[in-house]
Amino acid sequence: MASAPPPSAAKVYSANSFVSLPAELKSDTYDTSREKRRAEAERLAIRCRLKRHYQLQLNDPSPPAIIDDPSLVRWALAKSQNVYPTFRPTPKMSFLGAAYGLGPILFCIFVLKADRDRKEKRIQEGKYKRPFSVFF
Predict the structure, then answer these.
(1) Residues 57/64, Cβ–Cβ less than 8 Å
(2) How many beta carbons lie within 10 A of that of residue 16, not counting itself?
(3) Which of 4, 14, 119, 124 is most buried, with most CB under 10 Å away?
């Protein structure tokens, strides 16, 4: 004979007159409705069925060529196709995009220009002889 489920912690715990009830044990936040518990149980059952199916494929003596994990497929699909709804352009992201996109280009231009100016100054002073080059 099945006994009734144990009472929730919110019902067991009685608040002291000197101490208030913690937020975790308040019945409006801790206890869920019957529909929510049923939906959680259904989701748990679906996850258990998918896990059992995957484990059966994984431990099969003659396994198929590709073992399909539906939860992994769903995760990869959500990861690859649901990027932009969660992305928000902010000033920080704009700055980082400009820094990573334009920063290396501007750095290379600065280094090459500084090296060219340094060589030209040494040539003007007569300390460096311009090498013969067919391409320049």
Answers:
(1) yes
(2) 8
(3) 119
Q: From the first residue on, what is the mean pLDDT of each consecutive set of 10 residues in the chain (136 residues)?
A: 66 66 65 80 89 86 81 81 76 93 96 95 89 75
Q: DSSP character for 103?
A: H
- The structure tokens 């937020």 sit at 23
- pLDDT for 105 equals 97
Cβ atoms of 67 and 57 within 8 Å: the answer is: yes
- Nearest-angstrom CA–CA distance, 46 and 94: 42
Read off the tokens for 62. Answer: 């003659």
**What are the Cα distances from residue 10, in Å, to 25, 30, 37, 101?**
5, 7, 16, 55
Half-sphere exposure of 123 (CA within 13 A, CB side): 9
Give the number of other CB atoms < 10 A from CB of residue 10. 17
DSSP 34-73: HHHHHHHHHHHHHHHHHHHHHHHHHT-SS--SS---HHHH
